[in-house]
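Bench notes, afternoon.
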Amino acid sequence: MKKIEVELDQATYDKIEQLTQTHHCQVSDLIKAMIEQLTQPEIMNNLFVGEWSNEAELVDKMVEDILQYRNQ
C-alpha cells in the first residue's frame, strides 16, 4: 500500500467525514470507489453518467446509494 497526503478545503473534508460515517467505511474506500467509477470505459461513462451530466446532485445521491448498499 502507498500513503498519500492531500490538502482539502473544510467543506470537502466535512463531506468526506459525513460519507465515511454514513457508509461505515474508510476514506480509502471512498477514493477507491471514485477511481473505479471514473476509470470505467468511455462507453460506460457516456451511457450511464454522460446522460446525467446536468444532474450533478442526483448523480451524487446515486453514488452515495451505491456505496451504502455495497458496504452492507
